Amino acid sequence: MKAEDVCTNDLIPAANDFDKPKVKADAEGVKLSEGFAALDVEEIKAHLFDSAVK
């Protein structure tokens, strides 16, 4: 069996067909817990791949 016989991108367009502005607005409207609100996301992004194999 070959991967291309069972794996396709046929469902990708339908999966990406959603109201993106509504999802963004809904996400921005969520109140974060104190722990999550305290996270320094930029610091996390800056070091996300520090331990990656190079």
Summarize the topology:
Layout: H1 3-6, H2 12-15, H3 20-28, H4 34-37, H5 41-46
Summarize this structure as a short list of keywords or feature phrases.
single chain, 54 residues, mainly alpha, 0% strand
Task: Explain this structure.
The protein is mainly α and 54 residues long. It has helices at residues 3-6, 12-15, 20-28, 34-37, 41-46.
The SSE string, one letter per element, is: HHHHH
Query: Residue share in helices?
Result: 40-55%
Rounded to the nearest angstrom, the radius of gyration is 19 Å
- Calculate the mean pLDDT score and round it: 94
Q: Tell me the major beta sheet.
A: none
- What structural class is derived from the secondary structure elements? mainly alpha
Number of strands: 0
Summarize the structure.
Helices cover 50% and strands 0% of the residues. It starts with a helix and ends in an 8-residue tail after the last helix.
